[in-house]
Amino acid sequence: MNDYAKAFSDYLVSRRVSQNTLDSYQRDVEHYLDFLEEKGCPYPEKAGEELLEEYIQQLQSMNRSAATVTRNLASVRSFYQYLIQLGLASANPAKKMKLEKKDKKLPQILTQYEIDQLLAQPDTKDDKGCRDKAMLELLYATGIRVSELIDLDVGDVNLQEEMLFCRNPRSQRSIPIYPAAVSCVSDYCYRVRDKILPADRRETALFLNMNGNRLTRQGFWKIVKSYAQSAGITKEITPHTFRHSFALHLLENGAQLKDIQQMLGHADISSTQIYLQLLDNHVKEVYNSCHPRARMG
Asked: Counting Cβ atoms within 10 Å, is residue 193 exposed (0-12), middle (13-18) or buried (19+)?
């Protein structure tokens, strides 16, 4: 079974998928292969729809979220497609399988006040605080993904032009940066980054941990959650919270959906249209809380 998982992982690397996709698909397929082995089926090409349905039911019985189960099914579907390409399998048991659709949960959004409170938490007189402030400001300024933030190299930010160049396997895009964020990133680059980086090491990463290595996704979110707690924010913050807040706040202030799509790097505008629904919900919340007669029953 380990040979199957390793070969599939190498295949994903060759397809230049994102690190997040690689980690998720690899983990999902390893779990699926473990399940098959427990069921006495050491060869995945011999597993049919019944075993796959049992696997999905097991995930659901473990209270896995709908999103996690859906991703697992996508991972297994991709795995079987790979086996078919190699000629090891003749059919994909996951191809026709569909999960029961559930209402999609709308993403969590920070209010402008909460964003301001969060951005005010880092102590910029401190080296770590200066770095953290630059990361938070840049994330909110551009709406890039957390994975894209930590993948940034020094040359990807043009402070003079106030632009950020973001690249990933799916898209390449240039995004403006507001002056306050430029100032924070500039302060970090010229006052702190060289101090963190050991003199004998060459590192292209823009944002470093305090040991001089590229910051990790997990490390960044520990930082965010710490500042959220100190800011008194009780909402559950996810890796996309800043991205969602960026998009909704632009929409609230008159930005066109197509422009937001371009900045977010969405291939299909349908992915961006969820913010219209969020905007409708937000307007209703504001109305219900602020209109003098809205609370009269």
From this structure: buried
